[in-house]
Amino acid sequence: MSSSLPGELAVPASPLPRPAHGLGPVSSDWEAAEVWLQAIASRPKKGSPETVATYRYHLAKLRWYCENASHNVPSQWTMPEVTKFFAFLGNLPKWAVCAHDGIRHARLGEPGYTPFRLTPSASSRSDIQRCIHAMFRAWREVGYIAMNPMGFHGAGAQRKVNVNRAVTLDLYDLVLETMEAQEKTTFEQRQRHVRDRFVLIGLRELGLRTTEFIKAKMGAFQPLSDPKTGHTYWIMHITEESAKGNIERKIPVTRHALTALSTYRKAFGMTLFPTPGDKTPLLLSPRTRRGTTTASGIPIVSLGARRGYGVWRSLTSRHSLYAIVKERLAQAATFLDSIGETDRAIQLREASPHWLRHTFAKAALMTGQDLRTVAGWLGHRNISTTMIYTEQQALDLIRATEQASPGVLAREDAC
């Protein structure tokens, strides 16, 4: 019973029991992880959908490992369990790699599915480590676990931009030339060629992140008129949903990139230029979707009819884009091997889609683009991130030293 005077709040006769932890009612570690992800999503600056999606993908790897390899949930982990997990990631067994039937990887719920397409790189393992460490730390702060089993492992090294990981312009041109020389006798081969060419040109000339490319729709490409000159230009709208850090931006599109887009759209039966609001995914497969119908409900059965109606499958994962780029780079590398240029072939085989973003940044700055302009194009919140692609800090020190102590520095005079 409780007693109170009129107008006063009732006071319980005995205090309510204190919750065991601050996560609320959760029945498993995976529900606890979801509560943590929802808290991340609510952060105004760091909770972008892309960040949450990346964390969720890292946690899918953790869950698969727990259910198929360790048979122990994270809340019961000790330091040795953490060590075993990262050893597993660094030397992924063949049975942990997602099945592939020669066309695509197995999807969630299909036989042979795992969240691992290949052994995670050192930088990917570092990303996974930071994610899981952050979750354990949050769990400990709210009392869900008594200690952080990764306390001594730490959060892992922060990934740094390596500006040397860029495809030189001559090698980039060679990749496109090698593609032109490839056989394109079938309809599907021609479609793959123009799509892949657009991908390589788009990544190189627009400076896009992989996720920005994958998540874009055709309608992201839009005309924009300049009232000062009366000229109409094409821009690409990078939305908050796809941009890192929710930094929405609109970037100019080069003639080369727009031409590649038009050629690609024509090969897939579309108009040369997209219309505003076009929700068609930017990255399409030459393969069609089965089980589709016309607007009046008539089944579209034959392959030719499905192509005529443009019911293409879409590619919506970063792995799809990664596979396209790696295949085309490998073809050019094979050619370099055949003419004895093995060092350059090795460089191409190491490259990835993100290298083309670095290629864009370095090329833009080397041709005299303003630093702030390039930062805006890349979607960098802080201009210091863009400065990594330059030697500006070293040049500032050189000029200051030359002014204070002429002749001290090792120097080769211009001819």
3D structure, described in words:
The chain has about 425 residues and is mainly alpha-helical. It folds into two domains: about 30-140, no CATH class; about 170-290 and about 300-385, Intergrase catalytic core (hpI Integrase, Chain A). About 45% of the residues lie in helices and about 5% in strands. The chain contains 15 helices and five strands. The protein has helices at about 30-40, 50-70, 80-90, 120-140, 170-180, 185-205, 210-215, 255-265, 305-310, 320-340, 340-350, 355-365, 370-380, 385, 390-405, and strands at about 220-225, 230-240, 250, 285-290, 310-315. It has a three-stranded antiparallel sheet with strand order 1-2-3, with no helix packed on it. Strands 4-5 form a two-stranded antiparallel ribbon. A hairpin with a 6-residue loop joins β1 and β2. α5 crosses α10 (about 320-340), α6 (about 185-205) runs antiparallel to α8 (about 255-265) and α6 (about 185-205) crosses α12 (about 355-365). The longest helix is centred in the first third of the chain and has 22 residues, at about 50-70. The radius of gyration is 26 Å and the shape is globular.
